[in-house]
Amino acid sequence: MKAKITVTPKKAVLDPQGKTVQTALEHIGFTGIKDVRIGKYIEIELEGTDREAALKSISQASHKILSNPVIEDYSVEIE
Amino acid sequence: MNFSVLQFPGSNCDQDCVHVLKNVLGHNARLLWHKDTSLGDTDAVIVPGGFSYGDYLRTGAIARYSNIMAAVKQFADRGGLVLGICNGFQILCEAGLLPGALIRNKGISFRCEFVWLRTGNPDTPFTCKAPEGTLLRIPIAHGEGCYFADAETLKQMEENGQILWRYCDRHGNTTPESNPNGSLLNIAGICNAQKNVAGLMPHPERASEKILSGHDGRILLESMVQFLENRKRS
Amino acid sequence: MTKDPAITPELVAQHGITPEEYENILKILGREPNYTELGIFSVMWSEHCSYKNTKPLLKQFPTRSKKILVGAGEENAGIIDIGDNLAIAFKMESHNHPSAVEPFQGAATGVGGIIRDIFTMGARPICAMNSLRFGNLSSPEVQRLFRGVVGGIAHYGNCFGIPTIAGEVCFDDSYEGNPLVNAFCLGVLRHEQIARGAAKGIGNPVFYVGPATGRDGLAGAAFASQDLTEASAEQQRGAVQVGDPFMEKLVMEACLELLAAKDAVAGIQDMGAAGLTCSTCETAARAGTGIEIELSKVPQRATGMTPYEIMLSESQERMLIIVNKGHEAEVQRIFDKWDLPWSEIGVVTDTGRMVVKNHGQVVANIPAAKIANDSPVYHRDSKEPAYMQGVRAYRVNSLSDTTSPAKDLEMLLQTPTIASKNWVYRQYDHMVRDGSVVCPGSDAAVVRIKGDSLPMLPDGAAESVPAGIEKFIALSVDGNGVYVYLDPYEGSKTVVAECARNLACSGATPLGSTDNLNFGNPHNPELFFQLKESVRGLAEACAAFNAPVTGGNVSLYNQNPMGAIDPTPTLALVGLIEKKEHITTQWFKDEGDVIILLGDAVDSADPNLGLGGSAYLMAKHDVKNGLPPRCDLKKEKAVQDLTLECIRSGWIKSAHDCSEGGLAVCLAESCFSKNVALNTPVFKGAKIDLSGVKSSRLDALLFGETQSRVVVSTSADHAEQVLAKAQASSVPATVIGKVTGCCKAATLDITTATASTLSWSIPALHSLWWNALAEIMD
After folding, report:
1. Would you call B109 and C433 a contact, using CB atoms and an 8 Å cutoff?
2. Predicted ipTM?
3. Residue C746 near residue C671, CB atoms below 8 Å
4. Contact (CB<8Å) C159/B55
5. Closest by Cβ to B148, choosing from A13, A17, A20
6. Residue C2 banded pLDDT, cuts 50, 70, 90
7. Which of the four, A33, C120, C259, C439, has the lowest number of CB atoms within 10 Å?
8. How far is C160 from C157, CA to CA, in rounded Å?
């Protein structure tokens, strides 16, 4: 099994990287861009087959260390 | 006084802190390895700057789970003085010992330069020698020093006198131009509600000797010493 | 396991080995090499490792002095005694090609590599510098490279925790597509702590420490460019080398801790270019021993790596340590403490051979000393480049004198090469380690060495340096590709002279130097001429300033589609400041101080009056021509000695050397270059009277780059003493003005015989100079 975790900055948090990329995209001619947020993507290879247990434990890990709840949101997918 | 300076893999201001505490201010200072589980005989803890664990994942995120941080938490809960500098500030926020978080500088790139700070609440162990409004010239050196906390937290901190240092111009005005990283309310450093744990992005240990273009940073460390001496006496 | 390809003439050629060199290999081995051995020969006999094209030239460099403890070529870096049982190790190295391919990682791994060279010597690295060159900054591609390189240096140095305390950045069309990244590192140690890269002690175990080996950098080492073949298919997986400064910091701390463990280490060597290959044969060659390693014991990051790949990988942050038998447990204890991988991979033998086994099967068996020391040596043909005739014939009087000197100065101060580099150095942590006494922004940086700068001592060992010791080291790095292009010999002398002048202005006497020769293809006789003449000039000047060369690096083949780069030797000079009180900076200090020019205002014997190859000529007239300013080493030495004597007598408040942009730029910088904090520059004004100075051209007087000039300021009380001392030393010295009022109203006023008084607002000039790079880059 594989866990895929996406961590993104919270809406209220300034994301200078996202802003810079947005400007760059507009600069080189990509139009219609409303907002860019840059986060991180983490893959974890898991042993076992119990998806529910995996989701629970990886969600805990995401809350505890993989993201900082003060500034970041996360989502977990098990595959 | 007995200072303990923590040493994580990737700490790189640890020796600078020891140098200033020992050779400049004349106190005892020793390094404590992150795998240690006890602080031993300690009056105050310094969490130094650097790139603990390479700043991988998030600044300070991995260091907070080290053995020694459990001991620091206990020490702080009992009222012990803890000061986090730069990466140390980030670690203390990650550990929940201080509110808020430090995120990427607004200008994205790393900034290393002297900045001006204005001291806030003088009624804390970290500011007791600096009357409110004292101007300090101390260097910063960070890529992720933009202070963030939600509006409610900021309000509480302000009411409670927890905002100890703000970026300002040479006249003491907290202007946007004088804010090197986009920190909310120009926040450079704060303390917890109990006022025994503080953190700041600027490096007082780099501004504690005249030969290093300034010694304004000493007042911060000397405040801690004065507070500890008074507490010992009483 | 994939089968090794057969050795064919094509494969030999792809490895950059000539038919004659191949004959030599057959002779050394007494048989045909196998694929792995061919790879080993190809990297060991590359210019980078063997100096085969430059060895005869490099012999000209002065390399000895009483203070040199480890000399050029002996080890990874030279070591110089600085007194009180302290010593410094330093070196500069290029990472040009990797930075052209991937600027961020290329520059980052360049910094990582040079730091390893220093701690390999047993020294604790305490500061770094760099010398960078890029094409025209108006090009977005050049901006990308510039941003990437600076970001990479910042990333590695900041995370490692070393202050990047000085440097230079130049921009010129000739570097388009071929940026130069020369990185310098300096470390400090006690005399008894010098470590050697020798595989001493038959039977001693050989340890590999640091991260696992991957296919990194494979493509770069042996195959510069080639068609996709069966062999190269494997190679293509070799990705860009990625630096991990965090890992390097841990490896350094662990190595210094191990070196402090009594008698544990017999020899230590970093794995740089051609990692495992170079480190094993060089250590064996230095000790006159043999070495045998087993590749299956080498930690590997990728699966299915061939012996060829493992031997040629350039994975970063790895070290080879020869441990004295019986001390294996120390290695285990210390590297486990730092959570670092380690593995015992081999043993020192008495066979004189480098034997590489993979799962017990011999995959390479080469006489170590022969491959390390008997590399080919070439005496290349040289021919004066055709353009030189035109250069010699060029006269600046074909251009009319300036009629807009006020605008010219404003323009020059915004030229990227002259403009403030704060956009660069504020990205570098230049203060960590509490030693940065003079930060970037003055002529030379000054770093303090203190007791805790040193590597740790063995447990219980007595301290061998005096308590509370402080030493002050000044550093500067310089280069001028345009001068060297226009006159390789004279221009190269100037490079050294300017660098030494920077040190003198900071109050330091040279201890030694390290150079980086960045040139084009040596097979081209005209380009080889540049190299040959340049080395002659460098050698002569290094001798004149008592700055023996302790090591360095050669980077050839810096060609781009438009041709070769300007020949660019860069030189880093390290000097000692005797007393704290002698530390001098370039900015004016107090109102009323007297400003004195040491040296001739204009070299009237120079047909171009100091304008040949000048920044002014290029910026204003787009002319890169004419013989550059002459460099009279005797005269230069006299000016520098005088500057130093006056500083040591306590008469000098500021000293700034006149270089790019000439006297006007020098004066402007002296007025505004002090900066105390964010948005807090400190301004002084100056009232300058040059009406007594004879010059047939105003532009030559203001912007000419006549050599051997220093602008000093002194309190009114001491001016007479400076002038008298100058007279006694036969150095021309002229009072040219006074430091005037400060703050926002400060002006620089210059009166000349030919033009009405020029007046510039200092805050306005400062703003142009300070913001020029940020305006392009942000």
Report:
1. no
2. 0.98
3. yes
4. yes
5. A13
6. low
7. A33
8. 5
Active-site residue list of C: 48, 95
pLDDT at C220: 52
User: So where are chain C's domains?
Assistant: 9-54+197-373, 584-778
Contact with chain C for residue B107, Cβ under 8 A: yes
At the second CATH level, the architecture of A2-78 is 2-Layer Sandwich (3.30)
Chains B and A physically touch (3 or more Cβ atom pairs below 8 Å): yes
Selected residues 17-76 of chain A with any CB under 8 Å from a CB in chain B: 17, 20, 65-66, 68, 70-71
**CB within 8 Å: A9 and B103:** yes
pLDDT tens sequence across C373-389: 888 999 999 999 999 99
Tell me whether domains C9-54+197-373 and C584-778 share a fold: yes
**Chain B residues within 8 A of C429 when measuring between CB atoms:** 110, 112, 141
| Number of compact structural domains in chain B | 1
Containing structural domain, residue B114: 2-233
Predicted confidence (pLDDT) per residue in C271-316, tens digit: 987 789 999 999 999 999 999 999 999 999 888 999 999 999 988 9
H helices of C302-346, in order, are 307-312, 328-337
The structural domains of chain A, with segments of one domain joined by +, span: 2-78
**Residues lower than pLDDT 70 in chain B:** none
Q: List the CATH number of the domain containing B55.
A: 3.40.50.880
Which chain A residues are within 8 Å of B149, Cβ to Cβ? Answer: 70
Backbone angles phi and psi of C600, in degrees to 5: -75, 135
Residue A6 burial by Cβ neighbours in a 10 Å radius (0-12, 13-18, 19+): middle
**Which of these ranges, C335-339, C617-621, C683-687, has the smallest mean pLDDT?**
C335-339
For residue B137, give the chain C residue with the closest CA: C677
Architecture of domain C584-778: Alpha-Beta Complex (3.90)
Instruction: Identify which of C605, C694, C721, C610 has the alpha carbon closest to the alpha carbon of residue C658.
Output: C610
Q: What is the CATH number of domain C9-54+197-373?
A: 3.90.650.10
Q: pLDDT (tens digit, 9 = 90+) per residue, C218-263?
A: 755 444 333 333 443 444 344 578 899 999 999 999 999 999 999 9
Minimum CA–CA partner of A41 in chain B: B57
Q: What is the pTM of this model?
A: 0.95
Sign of CA pseudo-dihedral B208, B209, B211, B216: positive
